[in-house]
Amino acid sequence: MNKVMDIAASMSVSNVDVGRQHSKAPPHHAYHLSRYLQTREAIAQLEKQFGVSIAVPQGVDSPAQWQIFSKDGKQCMRARAEAMNMIAAHPPSRFHATQIHPFYHSHLRRQASDIRRDHGAHMLFPQEDMEPNHVVIVYEQPGSPTEYIVPRQAPS
Prior knowledge:
41% helix
């Protein structure tokens, strides 16, 4: 038991409050942002770059906080700063949740790469915990999805 307590005490934890950075955002913005950054593998890249673990909201009604865990306090703070930059680069104006009947989801999935390339819109389709007809559209920029780099600065 002492060993477990020693390991737990040696961990650094830092919170990033998405709601505070985007105070006028709808309550589900933190969840949509987290899902988007997970699908773009930006969170995994942060974890790998800084050697941290990041816990993000797992549901629409979850608290709007990310928790960053690390054995190295300095790396934890660096990862937090980078996460805050990434969050600032994705204000609510980049996201739009819309209701689309599930009948059309398969068609949209087939057209997703063309929509992304031509219009710069990345689509997040519903998961089990969301309403079945909500699709979240995230504006990136027109062009090749493989060349797109997740921004780390607030848009002008």
